[in-house]
Amino acid sequence: MTDAAQADAFGRLGPAVRAALSERGFETPTEPQRRAIPPLVTGRDALVIAPTGTGKTETAMLPVLDAISEREDTFGISALYITPLRALNRDMRERLDWWGEVLDIDVDVRHGDTTDYQRQKQANDPPDVLVTTPETLQAMLTGEKLRTALSDVEHVVVDEVHELAGAKRGAQLTIGLERLRELAGSFQRIGLSATVGDPEAVGGFLTGGRDCTIVEVDVTSKVDFTVREPEVTEEDEQLANELMTRPDIASHIRVIDDIVAEHDSTLVFVNTRQTAEALGSRFKELGTNIGVHHGSLAKETRIEVEEQFKAGELDALLCTSSMELGIDVGRIDHVVQYASPREVSRLLQRVGRAGHRRDEVSEGTILTSHPDDTFESLAIARRAAAGDVETMRIHHGSLDTVANQVVGLVMDFGDVSARRAYDIVTRAYPFRDLDEETFRQILRELDANHVLWLDEEADEIQKSGGSWQYFYANLSMIPDEESYEVYDVSTQSQIGTLDERFVVNFVEPGETFIQRGEMWRINNVEDEESRVNVSPIEDPAGEVPSWSGKEIPVPYDVAQEVAEMRAVAGPQFERDAPRDSVATEFTTRYPTDQNTSASALEQVERHADADAPVPTQDRLVIEEEGRVIVVDAAYGHKTNETLGRLLSALLGQRTGSSVGLDVDPYRIELEIPRGIRAGDVVEILEETDPDHVEPLLELSLKNSDALKFTLSQVAAKFGALKRWKSRGGQGTGLSRLLSALEGTPVYDEAVREVFHEDLDVERTREVLRRIQSGEIDLVKHGSRTPIGADGRSSGREMLTPENADASVVQAVKDRIQDDRVRLVCLHCGDWDQETKVRRVRDQPQCPHCESTRVATLSPWADDAVKALNLDPEERDEEQEKRVERTFRNASIVQTHGKKAVVALSARGVGPQNAARVINNHREDEADFYRDLLEKEREYARTKAFW
């Protein structure tokens, strides 16, 4: 398209819209508008990729509004504007209302909270433009009057399409759009997206693989990143004491405070809701004018904070991904990313929220705190500037989505031929490769669950008595997880929500926790109403609540660049190059300063000084010390998770014992039974057939909680069990469910989802092939190395010390309290629960028989539990010792309660040493932890001889 055609983009629109543009003050189009409006005016399908704040909404809607304004009056809905969040619904409605009033076009919004009166009004007198969500569209397609209204749809805009492309609810939407096509005929599809690595795939996702114009605005030339690890000053030491936190955390708080003071409006992004609350409480102590915003706060609270920020009443918002999408909070002039953003696309999306006044550059600062964090952030920042964005992992062929949408088709038509249903489903991009036999297996499963009737001879599917109930209970593909509403009793207003597991494990009257950056004391819990009543208090040391949500996975390519950095720095340190000179070299390639670079490189320098081989992209280092083997492998979360599960399963097969597993993007840590050595790990990596990875993993998954939990969620989507049975199910119930459903599409989908969400089989195969071809060296090392021991700790949060000694004691306490333990009743044998130490009651008691004869074991203590379950005459000598040790353990817990649980959870502290520490009768809690620390050190010195 010529420059002249682009410049004349507004001239392509009709006189009414051009007049409205002049009235609104839109004199010249933005780049997305200049490039996208001309093809959109002609009715072409298009995907518009541009940063938030560049007028994407108007880019899509001006041609749509223009087309509607020139149509003759019709009864139905002319355009749907679909957004993934209700908050965006509200935002879009406010933005489109002005255009509607000026152009005499009726704009309305519909979602789960829309009143019955408003729904009825929309059915009887449909608006011209309806703003809605993917889930609400599902319900609309089944309504008799609304189907008539939807038959007039000529345009569908999908906002934040990148957010949907990688999720099952997006896969559901693609079939929903094909169902709409059956009703309305072909319609124009317009997608609005943040930067993605594979625009063609996302365009295909939007259009069902039909022709799609891609309009991509280059964001990388208009972003500026700085990666910075603040130096700790004397001021930070003082601030740490005031805020009851570590000096390094205090330095981050100080720097954020300075950045906020230097700018008019700042967004501070963090990766978890827990971090948002913990940091928010510290800023509240400091008196900084910063609000907290995340998805578990009450809707009213979020709206209030958004409006305060937009009005300039707040200087900054501390937020999670809740602010990544295009919620309008006014102009932002700087973005802080607290810790690595983990993904290139996430960094571009977050920092891209700043600036956007024509040719302004979006500025962002990434604050880091340890070497992994810094190297990772440097790699992501460089890749973002170069436009190396991750590709989208679309949910191809999710079988529970097919089940959900087949019932939707039956609700649409009453009865429909299986062939027609198959053709409609496979027009959707994620299901284009679904084979007919699998489709028929899904129909048979739905028939067996009485969700629909299948007449195979007539090749017809029909509604059953259970269709209606199933469909409306499953409008969303987001799994149901119980949550509790939190209410301030003084104002009777809701402040947020808490996960069921947090309520069950922690919430008791009198306990305190942080939410909205403020402290609350729990008054009572109303279980039937799923409500927690609280009162505000002043207390800086409350519990940070837990919310569900997986860790953002670091991609393979980012982790490989971190390995490349080590490969560059390692040989220089081996030649005794000064760290400052190596750091200077890094500052020429990456957007960082000398101090940050040197601080991160100190880890590699220590590693080289220890004469340890540096792990790189072409070298795996396998460390061995005591009962821990660490594989230094920079392959990112999913590949390391896959390799780790493979190693854990095959090592477990060799010994008949469980192998503990923990992974991060740069390490695989294995807690091994006796008899396993690093050579066994090398042997597995060198000899496992890459083509056997998937079946070996599927075999190992059968006993995993991840598969059982996913299976319960998928089974609900197939109508295979009542929804109440799928909530929080554990133990034998889920095991029976797994056995009952094996070999069905339900089981196949659960396995597919675990593989899709958590694992990367293809990369793992590639790594094994490279190892076996000699491209990757395997090097064994007989002790822990600085790089191997510096894994990212999930417990490194906000609460800590007043002085050096207190710092160590507090760190030990935090670590033990966050450790997981296994509680087993030795009286009835029916209770076997895993939980965190901090969640254990003062006197552990079996909920089944109320006995206090409870042993506290390692989560990996399968051998001990197995020995307990054997008939005494069947136990060998080693198993008899385990049983005797377990009963001594339970005796100490019965006598000393939670104090014994804490002592037994310390590393290398068995029943005998735990009893000695407890019998010291320390009145000061700090002295109790000092005694435990001494026992841990003693164990570390001697464990090589055990």
Automatic annotation (TrEMBL):
Q: Where is the Helicase C-terminal domain?
A: 255-407
Domain Helicase ATP-binding, residue spans: 37-214
Gene Ontology terms describing biological process: DNA repair
Domain of life, per UniProt, equals: Archaea
Any one Gene Ontology MF annotation carried by this entry is:
catalytic activity, acting on DNA
UniProt keyword list = ATP-binding, DNA damage, DNA repair, DNA-binding, Helicase, Hydrolase, Isomerase, Nucleotide-binding
Q: What Pfam families does this protein map onto?
A: DEAD, DEAD_assoc, Helicase_C, WHD_Lhr
Return the SMART domains for the record: DEXDc, HELICc
Q: Which PANTHER family match?
A: ATP-DEPENDENT HELICASE LHR-RELATED, ATP-DEPENDENT HELICASE LHR-RELATED-RELATED
**Family named by the database record:** Belongs to the Lhr helicase family. Lhr-Core subfamily.
Q: What is this protein called?
A: DEAD/DEAH box helicase
